[in-house]
Amino acid sequence: AQSVTQLDSHVSVSEGTPVLLRCNYSSSYSPSLFWYVQHPNKGLQLLLKYTSAATLVKGINGFEAEFKKSETSFHLTKPSAHMSDAAEYFCVVTGGQAGTALIFGKGTTLSVSS
Amino acid sequence: GAGVSQSPRYKVAKRGQDVALRCDPISGHVSLFWYQQALGQGPEFLTYFQNEAQLDKSGLPSDRFFAERPEGSVSTLKIQRTQQEDSAVYLCASSFPGSEQYFGPGTRLTVT
Predict the structure, then answer these.
(1) Which residues of A touch B105 (CB under 8 A)?
(2) Which of A32, A53, A92, B84 has the CA that lies 20 to 30 A from B38?
(3) Do B61 and B38 contact (CB within 8 A), yes or no?
(4) Quick check: A103 and B45 CB within 8 A?
(5) Which residues of chain A lie closer than 8 angstroms to B100, CB-CB?
(6) Cβ of A33: how many Cβ atoms within 10 Å?
(7) Are A5 and A23 in contact (CB under 8 A)?
(8) CB distance B97–A103 less than 8 Å?
(9) Which residue ranges make up each domain of chain A?
């Protein structure tokens, strides 16, 4: 069965400093992995996705993630945090082919202070 | 263009009442998903439609939960005899097969 574990429930950074949100996955076959962001009272938005092409994936708003099979990790990073990045972030794996049910982690709340 | 819309955005139900939650997917999207997001948790899969066919309902927590998509477009999630543990945000997503899922804003259900 597929699953993801987000290693931090809450991450706090200062504006302008790097962001690291950690995610480990478990999958019996080559997975499709995603990061979604959820701002308060707004819908889930796709940040980026990995589907077995390049292992370093670039997404929107300066975020990127690296797929490391040896470590079963898919950590999300951003070089410099903005206040607007404060939100809930979810690491997600598909249950099968892309387009089928998504399996979400429990989420990491990112706080950004000025 | 228009995204996924859900109605109502907020619903308060007394325990034991039946509720119906509506999802309008993006036009042309044949795949439609329902998820349940409890407070402080990630969304959990409930059910999946391809056109009008319900291909997977393995995530529905009990037989009180029922979903339909009779014409392959709008979908309704119905919960009968609501219980307090049903309080959650119910999310709908749509997509083309094999493509990104687009999420609606959700319906926040509170059972009192």
Answers:
(1) 41-43
(2) A32
(3) no
(4) yes
(5) 46, 49
(6) 23
(7) yes
(8) no
(9) 3-113
Fold of B5-111: Immunoglobulin-like (2.60.40)
* Closest CA of chain A from B80, distance in Å: 24
At the top level of CATH, the class of A3-113 is: mainly beta
Taking the C-alpha atoms of residue B3 and residue B24, their distance in angstroms, rounded to an integer, is 9
Which residues sit opposite B91 in a β-bridge? B35
Q: What angle do CA A33, A96, A51 make, to 5 degrees?
A: 35
Domain boundaries, chain B: 5-111
Query: Residues, chain B, total?
Result: 112
Reply yes or no on whether the pLDDT at A38 is more than 50.
yes
Query: Given a cut of 70, is residue A99 above it in pLDDT?
Result: no
pLDDT of residue A98 exceeding 50:
no
Tokens of A70: 């040896």
For residue A106, the 8-state DSSP code is -
Rounded to an integer, what distance in angstroms lies between the CA atom of residue A104 and that of residue B75?
22
Q: Residue A52 pLDDT > 80, yes or no?
A: no
pLDDT for residue A27: 84
Q: State the Cα–Cα distance between residues B90 and B77, nearest whole angstrom.
A: 9
Give exposure, B22-48, as e/b (b: 16+ Cβ within 10 Å): ebbbbeebbbbbbbbbeeeebbbbbbb
The residue ranges of chain B whose pLDDT is under 70 are 1
Grade residue A104 by pLDDT with cuts at 50, 70 and 90.
very high
Size of interface A-B (CB pairs under 8 A): 55
